[in-house]
Amino acid sequence: MSQPGTTDSTRRVAIITGAAEGIGRGIALRLAKDGLDLGLFDLPRAETRLQELAETLRKEYGTKVTTVYGDVSKEDDVKRLVETVVQEHGSLYAMIANAGVAINRVLHETPTEELDRLLNINVKGTFFSYKYAAIQLIKQGTGGRILGAASIASKKGIALHSAYCATKFAVRGLTQSAAMDYGKYGITVNAYAPGAIETPLLHGLDEYHTKLNGQPPGTWSNSFSNILGRNGQPEDVAKLVSFLVSDDAAFITGQSYLVDGGTCFD
Question: Record's Gene3D superfamilies (predicted)?
Fold first, then answer.
């Protein structure tokens, strides 16, 4: 949501990790439409997609966009991300710790290196994003917003998702504890918890199940039942993020909100 009365020199700035595709891209499009300037972060291999997104935002919304490349699981990269965006824009208002990965494996068939990858990206990446955003926001002294990417898998265990669920339960714990740590600074900390959203991540998991079970493509990704009878789109999640970074959400903190069409009741 836009901030009435702001000028170009006072436009709020949000960082979005994992911004090149999927939910991250949807969030970037929505926050640009809302009038925020953006720092977009993704892996170097996503440079073409991220630059195309940045150009779209500049042309359609007049957004000031800074693109930064690195790995959220590396603390120095996240520190550099926040420093670069603040240097370019002058301040920070919101951190959207969106980057994440998933695998489908029964627990005893999950390779240790895959467990480490999930922990490094989903847990450490979120921790580092929260950490350096909080340091900057506390320094500024004007409050702000921190958001993390939880999941429906942060609300209940799911078969073949033991490692992934563990990392998303961890995001909920980080979010609740950080909300308690930073409330006195006027910083709210919340998370969004998507269900089945039509993204490259979901399609990659579907491909795995297609090969595993010999089923037609789309069988697994379309197997999730919810009240609304469809999978979500990135913009469905982006609408919630738009609200949580707005002034209208100033009295909400420590929460992880489902965006799942009614698959899971909390």
Answer: NAD(P)-binding Rossmann-like Domain
Number of domains in the chain: 1
CA distance 37 to 86: 11
Parallel, antiparallel or unpaired: strands 256-259 and 94-97: unpaired
From the candidates 93, 130, 132, 164, give the one annotated as an active-site residue: 164
CATH number, residue 50: 3.40.50.720
Q: Is the pLDDT of residue 44 over 50?
A: yes
Confidence grade of residue 209 (pLDDT, cut at 50, 70, 90): low
Q: Is residue 164 among the annotated active site residues? A: yes
Report the alpha-carbon distance of residue 163 to residue 256 in Å, rounded. Answer: 19
Query: Catalytic pick from 64, 155, 168, 192?
Result: 168
139 part of the active site: no
